[in-house]
């Protein structure tokens, strides 16, 4: 197991957000983080990045992740945020080049030829080469999301964390992104991705971690984790799981929302 989280707890403004979260994400695989709105998925990703005060342990390939120096952590892992503000004047290529900063020498002002090749590959992988000279801020939401993935890939991370990377993508781009992530996993990258689309999670993830109310409630292969019982208790829906005749992956057919208080926020 490559990413190992044990007894992770986080509080914000005195309110517990994550409580005793424990799971393992296998090396060179895609692990999906699923759970309803407010379950704590983004908080968990921030905790893995060392951005929050935490209790518990987060280990990746023998490293104590939250306590690594920033530059060492950036050489090991990359993060694709749901949406990230970027400096107004930067071109798409400049944004992707940011992924090489953790590897640059202090005196380096331009990306090296090797860095240039890595940046070009990241642009090509994400289908963003065609607008690499454009200002980043002129791109559509889906285009910007692909560029953020390119920037993270340019970091050549051992561990790639993504928070809802398909939220702005059309269905073709969703398939292309998850296919790209599969290729990266097969090449040895460990991928931990928060997803809302459970059918995409069932099809592309090797392993799922389910968060509900800040706690891990299930973990395992998609076929074992995604059950009508889990969808009822965690998401408050009546649903059926139908095997996809093409590949056997479970497909979720939603019948109805059964938890009437689902939209009521609690204090
Ligand atoms: N400063 C804070 N004080 C109290 N509660 C907070 C604070 N910040 C976040 N929360 C709560 O923490 C919970 C977890 O938030 P988080 O953004 O991690 O959830 P999520 O699973 O990523 O949700 P979504 O699927 O909607 O993006 C939410 O209920 C949120 O309202």
UniProtKB/TrEMBL annotation:
Give the similarity note: Belongs to the ABC transporter superfamily.
Could you tell me which residue ranges the ABC transporter domain spans?
Answer: 3-238
Question: What role does it play?
Answer: Part of the ABC transporter complex HmuTUV involved in hemin import. Responsible for energy coupling to the transport system.
SUPFAM superfamilies from the xrefs?
P-loop containing nucleoside triphosphate hydrolases
Show the PROSITE patterns listed in the entry. Answer: ABC_TRANSPORTER_2
Its signal peptide is none
- State the UniProt keywords alphabetically: ATP-binding, Nucleotide-binding, Translocase, Transport
What's one GO MF term for it? ATP binding
Q: Per its UniProt record, what NCBIfam families does this chain match?
A: PRK13548.1
- Protein name, per record: Iron complex transport system ATP-binding protein
- The source organism is Devosia subaequoris
